[in-house]
Specification:
Elements (H helix, E strand, L loop, with lengths): L1 H21 L5 H20 L3 H16 L6 H21 L9 H16 L6 H24 L4 H25 L1
Length: 178
């Protein structure tokens, strides 16, 4: 019962995050939706003992929280990529590969997302979109493996969310080079 409540909250968080993508970029409403949605998904991952999704969630929450402040590019890279490396180091330390042999797909997706979150979209729009797009695709692939091989219900949320999040960067890249 408790897990179903958290699953429902995760679905609401996913809807909030998707809704946030339709709002004006950088608006207060978008930042709030992203922060609340990211926190809810991180909590969902924690409650359901989803270690990879928890590590991804931590980086996404950091990104959503730091969106409220103007921080230097180097600081953003240190925070996001540093948090990703610490999270991946944790997964190595607990020998997560015994639990999930596909976790490197999610880990590489996480590193790309972290680089995208740190990249200044206005100055480096191609890199920003490539990092976020490829990172989202890899996390979606990892989530799909969780859904279809491990029958993980929580992975559905991450799969749908990351498929959706990979679309906007693809559209932006097509606009740049199209």
């Amino acid at each position: 019962m408790r897990k179903n409540i958290f699953l429902f909250a995760g679905i609401l968080a996913m809807i909030g995050l998707v809704t946030g993508t339709f709002l004006q970029g950088g608006s207060l409403a978008q930042k709030i939706l992203f922060l609340i949605g990211a926190l809810a998904l991180m909590l969902l991952a924690y409650v359901n003992h989803q270690k990879m999704f928890l590590v991804i969630g931590v980086v996404v929450v950091l990104s959503a929280a730091l969106a409220f402040w103007d921080t230097a590019l180097l600081i953003r890279y240190l925070i996001f990529v540093g948090a990703s490396i610490i999270g991946i180091g944790y997964l190595f330390k607990i020998n997560f590969s015994r639990e999930d042999k596909y976790w490197p797909i999610g880990a590489f997706g996480l590193l790309l997302l972290a680089a995208g979150f740190a990249t200044d979209a206005a100055v480096y729009s191609v890199l920003f979109n490539v990092f976020l797009g490829l990172g989202s695709i890899l996390v979606a692939i990892y989530s799909g493996i969780g859904v279809f091989l491990y029958k993980n219900k929580i992975a559905w949320i991450w799969l749908i969310l990351n498929i959706f999040f990979s679309i906007n960067p693809a559209i932006n890249i097509e606009k740049i080079f199209g």
